[in-house]
Amino acid sequence: MLRGKDATLAAIIETILNEEPETQDEIAKKLNISRRYVAKLLKPLIDKKIVMHPYVVDIEKLSKLEIYHSIEKPIFHIIDLLDKMGNNVLYNLDKVHNALKTRNIEDAKSVIFQDYTLNKLEEEVNITLKMDNLKYLPSKQTALLSKIASNIERCGDYLSNIAEEITKGLYIKEYLHEDIDEIFNITKKMFSIAMDMVKDGKASFEIYDLEEELHRKLEKIMKVLSEKEECKTKNINYYIQFGMFLKDIERFGDRCIKIFETGREFHHGLLGEDSRK
């Protein structure tokens, strides 16, 4: 925890990031300190062109200083948008599951329509990343946030694909109900864990165990399906259609891992399964 002049400097930098003041007097008034003290604390950063006038911060340069880790960064609106995208995906995941079980075509059509909302949210994320108070965010962090949004949007695409197949007749035969319930529960857990990492930097490595479990379940379902349907001519269309559905579920799970790992790299500078601790 920062104390003394370091805490005051952090508050000055946060004021610049959030309010883009024109003068040191504005900063001093906001923090109830003297303009002279503001000038004294800012001088080393101004000399290194970390802080520039009119008062903006080059976060790329600032990120190399220890104080950067204690500063409230101007990304909360982005995280909020990513959270909205995630909630949209979870809502449609439940809706697709229900549509499969009940053959509810209207629910399936609703999921397809909701994909437009997800696309617009992704666009909003990328536009917001170009706004003034984020223009000095380190380019790597900007790229990671954009990548997270892209992967969440792709999860929505897979649900939309499944919903479209439902409108074309895809349904779950009774002998598969329990297995399908299980894979939807697994994917929901995986996506929730991935979004917890994005929102709060909270790491739960259960996601890797769930990924392995998902692949085992998918292989089991395909085996059961091939045995039951025997790939007879009259059943071949169902077999192919169901196989496409399972492939979309597999891809959804893969995207969950990508969201988790990109979120981990964003919050902690760590990437991939090999860096688990």
UniProtKB/TrEMBL annotation:
Alphabetical list of InterPro entries matching this protein: PhoU, PhoU-like_sf, PhoU_dom, WH_DNA-bd_sf
All copies of domain PhoU, residue ranges: 82-166, 180-261
Pfam families in UniProt: HTH_24, PhoU
GO biological process: intracellular phosphate ion homeostasis; negative regulation of phosphate metabolic process
Gene3D superfamilies according to UniProt: Homeodomain-like, Phosphate transport system protein phou homolog 2, domain 2
Protein's recorded name: Phosphate transport system protein
Native source organism of the sequence: Methanofervidicoccus abyssi
